[in-house]
Amino acid sequence: MDNTSGVGVIDKAALVLDALEAGPTTLAQLVAATGLARPTVHRLALALVHHRLVARDMQGRFVLGSRLVELASAAGEDRLIAAAGPILMQLRDATGESAQIFRRQGDWRVCVASAERPVGLRDTIPVGTQLSMKAGSAAQILVAWEDHDRLLEGLNNARFTPTVLAGVRRRGWAQSLGEREPGVASVSAPVRGPSGRVIAAVSISGPIERLTRQPGRQHAEVICNAGRLLTEALRKGND
Amino acid sequence: MDNTSGVGVIDKAALVLDALEAGPTTLAQLVAATGLARPTVHRLALALVHHRLVARDMQGRFVLGSRLVELASAAGEDRLIAAAGPILMQLRDATGESAQIFRRQGDWRVCVASAERPVGLRDTIPVGTQLSMKAGSAAQILVAWEDHDRLLEGLNNARFTPTVLAGVRRRGWAQSLGEREPGVASVSAPVRGPSGRVIAAVSISGPIERLTRQPGRQHAEVICNAGRLLTEALRKGND
DNA sequence: TATTGGCGTCTCAATATCTGAGATGCAAGT
DNA sequence: ACTTGCATCTCAGATATTGAGACGCCAATA
Description:
Two copies of one chain form a homodimer.
Chain A: H1 8-20, H2 27-34, H3 38-50, E1 54-56, E2 62-64, H4 66-74, H5 77-95, E3 98-105, E4 108-115, E5 130-132, H6 137-144, H7 148-155, H8 162-171, E6 174-177, E7 184-192, E8 198-207, H9 208-211, H10 215-236
Antiparallel strand pairs in A: 1-2, 3-4, 3-8, 4-5, 6-7, 7-8
Helix pairs in contact in A: 1-3, 5-10, 6-8
Chain A binds a DNA duplex through residues 7-9, 26-28, 36-40, 42-43, 46, 60.
């Protein structure tokens, strides 16, 4: 796949932002990470600072800027998080299991909202937890509809296979048994953005003993419905 | 103030992202909003789509892309939200009032986390609520340390004055009485990002009868402390 | 049904912007 | 005191970007 957008400066700026995703980065580190010439990186980084897409920390290192959070909020993140609470609590109560929403974060998925089953044996995933993109039903959802290159990258060293992901796309939901942690089962469904692309996964998880070896059979419908409600919550603020 | 960064393409791309902050936008609307030539906007928007900073909705309109949410998460937003829960609950319990965190969103401030006083008379601000940047102690905090142009813009039509903001900068906290809503008092303190810039405001709010006409006198210390804890939560993930 | 207008997309000659080698300044280390 | 590494800046030259105009498509209108 062609890796350039047709606007060289934007390609380079995207490289800088990608490099900063890992955390505070000196100019020298940015030069190494992006492969660009030092004055080029310097000029682009200062331009991004000007627009608050990047900032500098107290040691002068470059960091991702607060404008990105503003834009993320405008992209609907706040509405997703606001809608998540009631919908996850409904999902928790309907299924009797803990419910979560995950977003992709590079090679990880991050829990951005959760509603925990209050008593007894339960799978606890606090907000902020980073889990692997290589295992679990939420990872399957976040990878299944990616374009070819990102799909192949997602499958590399993953606990699931292309055949499993084909099934996910066909059924519209995913299930896993003991992929992330022995004894834990989970079911997930997609949350889609305005373009129809998958931007998050809504999930329940709990012990295999309670969820059985076919947790999707019983729970897929209510989880898919939660995904649709969340998708609508994102759209509602735009039209 | 010079409004260009020195890299023209990045200036133009920032104009496009700014225009999309308002919601789904056709190419024609983007051309009007940015003042750029149609093929230029088209080319830049497609380049941003390529990098997932922008997407297209089902009607072909341009929208802000999910990569922005990923980058916002990497900028610490998730860690702030994760840390917010316990810290806001501590603040609520210590002060006996509802506690919130606000981020700036253009001409608005958005509640991104809250912990509500469970009983009796209380100020309820659900997550996702958009409040004015022209009134309230959180608005004062979000404006007080801005650069000159954004400071002047923030003061335009505001319920607070330059003298009030000078006091905010000196004391490190803000208070307001009935600015946003009659009968409601609030106190706020800054949450700072890695660069030391204010990226959010942590607040309590409640009835003037309970908070008195000098709410900062009694509560400022514990709110400033909450701001420092949240600031540290953002930094901890980076070093 | 035919025509018109508006919008999105594409081309490419012209030129303005961007690039990066090299210079400079500074601070930390030896 | 000297050296090294890093950040910042300059500017001649190269090339990427620009935007006028063309094209295609579709919805609205006569």
